[in-house]
Amino acid sequence: MKTTIYYYTGTGNSLWTARKISDALGDTQQIPIKLTGTNIIHSVSENIGLIFPVHIWGLPAPVIDFVNRLEIDPSKYFFAVAVNAGQVAATLIQLKKLMQTRGLNLFSGFSINLPSNYIPWGGAISPKEQQNRFNKAAEKINRIAAAIRSKEINPLEKGPAWQNIFLSLLYRQSYPYVHKMDKSFLADEKCTNCAICEKICPAQNILMANGKPIWQHCCEQCFACLQWCPEESIQYGKNTQKKKRYHHPEIKLSDMLASVLAKKMS
Ligand SMILES: Cc1cc2nc3c(=O)[nH]c(=O)nc-3n(C[C@H](O)[C@H](O)[C@H](O)COP(=O)(O)O)c2cc1C
Asked: How far is the CA of 144 from the centre of ligand 1 (A)?
């Protein structure tokens, strides 16, 4: 394959982005980061891409862990897409610095704005607003694919200075506590013990006990458990009960579970 894209996703936005870029490029394989386990990452592809959501104005922990396992020829063309809801902040700069510690260069880093899945700050936006974002993102993805095809070197996309200073500080302060933020998750009386939350969790952080999910405090805060629960039974604290759930409408539960099940069988 000419291009390999490694992706991480909670609610499908990053997977959709990976698929769109793959379709535009052709000859591209998509590998979920979670399928790589703890293995060292080698690749013979010419172009190597990373696509992932921005979490708390920075890189999610699984992406950091992934980059720390890269052992790839530095002459390859590396690109990244930080999928976010409007505040990419300094995420791509953080990625570039991390890659430099592995002797690798990030040649281009793009921001894609898609609907937010961070339900504590608001439920899903209307289908019409979602469609607007998908359309704009699709246009930008075509430009990104063209840049990758010609191996362009571009300045990394970033937020305004206030975001990069203030929000990066918040990222650094909250990062050590993310795993334990699952204390606010609970399953209410609508839970049917279907165990989809247990199956979909990329961190294997959920165990079913007495017919209810129990979070094990190694959470990655991707919100897959809450957003994919078919009964909307999973809540985060007290104010998510009435909020609309979100996952990318073109990504199906089976797409999400396929890679998780493959990992469990490996
Ligand atoms: C814990 C958490 C933190 C988030 N932090 C940010 C953020 O700092 N900036 C932003 O623009 N979006 C933020 N978001 C929104 C996601 O980046 C956005 O919805 C993304 O498209 C989700 O991608 P996914 O569906 O591939 O997981 C956050 C979402 C979660 C769950």
From this structure: 20
Please give the helix or strand (H or E) that residue 140 lies within, else none.
helix 127-149
CATH superfamily of this structure's domain 3-171: Flavodoxin domain (3.40.50.360)
Check pocket membership of 124 for ligand 1, CB cut-off 6 A: no
The token duo for 33 is 């980061």
pLDDT bracket for residue 1 (50, 70, 90): confident
For 160-212, write each residue's pLDDT tens digit: 999 899 999 999 999 999 999 999 999 999 999 999 999 999 999 999 999 99
Please identify, by atom number, the ligand 1 atom nearest to the C-alpha of residue 223.
31
55 in contact with ligand 1, CB cutoff 6 A: yes
Pick the CATH number of 177-265 from 3.30.70.20, 3.10.290.10, 3.90.230.10, 1.10.630.10: 3.30.70.20
Residue among 13, 19, 54 to mutate when testing ligand 1 (max atoms within 8 A of CB): 54
End-to-end CA separation in angstroms for the chain:
23
On the CB side of 220, CA atoms within 13 Å amount to 25
